Amino acid sequence: MSLFSTFHAAMVFARGIQVSASREVSVDIDPLAAGHPADRRTVVRESAASRREVPTAQTDAEEIRQARTVTENEIFLLLERIQEHALTRTAQVEHARLTDAAAADPAKLAGAVSELVDRQIQRVWNMLTFGIDGLKAQQQQQGLRGTTGLFDQLVARDKSSPSGLSQGAEASLQIARHALEGQLIADFTSGQLDEARLQALLGRGVGGAWCLGLSSPPLSQS
Predict the structure, then answer these.
(1) Which of 109, 128, 219, 220 is the most buried (most CB within 10 A)?
(2) Parallel, antiparallel, or unpaired: how do β-strands 24-29 and 7-8 relate?
């Protein structure tokens, strides 16, 4: 079994039947395809070269450690592929919604963008915290550890508040969302906001920069 061509696993369904494997059937499912039958590809091999025998003796501890490391790396890559796929689909859906809303009434573009960001506010928060962590690491590398406390305050949580965020974090999130909204409106108005651009703005790269307020003095000067 292979997930996103990244994480691979094999299963033994039964024991006790002594037979030799004569052929191998592989079914590759593409989660990005539009639908059946384009979403799967079947390959039949007249041998079972990839078949693995079940170990009969206890595996060496070092081999187990190495296997776990490989598995952890594969799972990390798998999660990245899943997140990338989800972001691609989100960008497609949100771009279509925004385009339709602006076509129906161009005067309501700002409202449509605000609704888009409302729906994706968790992504905005994720981008903000990701960027803050990056800035903290950068400051620490430069020997400026005294500033990390300030960055922590920008994304601090407060279990007693309705949102679970401190006042500082709420303010940071609002600055981030307004910076992102402004860029979305500017890009849409200039004709630059295609699906790829929207995906970039909702991701941790370009979008993370805007959410950090690198174009917004209040946050970068906090």
Answers:
(1) 128
(2) unpaired
